[in-house]
Amino acid sequence: MSRIEELAERYTRHISTPWQHTMSGAQRVIMVVYEKELERTLRARKVLFETATLEVGHTWHEIDLTTSFPSWIAGDEYRDAYFEQPDDLSLKLQSEFPEYVAAELRRALTAPNVTENTVVAVLGVATLFGLARFSEVLRKVDRDIRGRLLVFFPGQYDHNNYRLLDARDDWNYLAIPITHYSDEFSS
């Protein structure tokens, strides 16, 4: 069994347990943590997670953040100047880009077809590396999570600490971790 199939199997066991609806938004997040080298494999096999979700009676809604930065910068009237002087972009990245990504994610979480029975799956988190902290984005949207938020997270997990692409400073989050090397998640 491949590592992605093993993750899908662990996810299936978790997602098939009854959902508590009194949990905070932060506790409704499920982080599927995998080695960064498996990103393409995960994308090719993500249907395993969708199928598992649908088979246990939940609905599936997906968002891919891969094009968030290109879309954001393309909409900025000063984009050409930023390419000439990239250092000028840093302040704008810190102040505006996390909110832009959070707004994209919020639209997915509050879409008309998303209910308390929906898993909203997030791909493309790695493309935020060096541009926005995903932990900050999650904090901005955790009140908008109705069902479950499934984050495909290329990096590492160790005792509630997540490291995006194995390089970002650790950040602690209340999410349910699903990893291929342990059975630490609980329902």
Give a short summary of the structure:
The protein has helices at 3-15, 39-45, 47-55, 68-74, 79-84, 89-95, 97-109, 134-141, and strands at 29-34, 59-64, 118-123, 148-158, 161-164, 171-172, 176-178.
Strand content: 15-25%
Order of helices and strands: HEHHEHHHHEHEEEE
Class from secondary-structure proportions: alpha/beta
The major beta sheet can be summarized as: 7 strands, mixed
The total count of helices amounts to 8
Enumerate the spans where pLDDT stays under 50 for 5 or more consecutive residues: none
Number of domains: 1
Give the overall shape: globular
User: Distance between termini?
Assistant: 24 Å
Q: Mean pLDDT across all residues, rounded?
A: 90
The number of distinct β-strands equals 7
Roughly how much helix do the residues carry, as a percent range? 25-40%
Radius of gyration: 17 Å
Topology:
Blueprint: H1 3-15, E1 29-34, H2 39-45, H3 47-55, E2 59-64, H4 68-74, H5 79-84, H6 89-95, H7 97-109, E3 118-123, H8 134-141, E4 148-158, E5 161-164, E6 171-172, E7 176-178
Parallel strand pairs: 1-4, 1-7, 2-3, 3-4
Antiparallel strand pairs: 4-5, 5-6
Verbal overview:
The chain has 187 residues and is an alpha/beta fold. It has one domain. The chain is 37% helix and 20% strand. It contains eight helices and seven strands. It has helices spanning 3-15, 39-45, 47-55, 68-74, 79-84, 89-95, 97-109, 134-141; strands at residues 29-34, 59-64, 118-123, 148-158, 161-164, 171-172, 176-178. Strands 1, 2, 3, 4, 5, 6 and 7 form a seven-stranded mixed beta sheet that branches. Helix 7 packs across helix 8 (134-141). The model has no long low-confidence stretch (mean pLDDT 90).
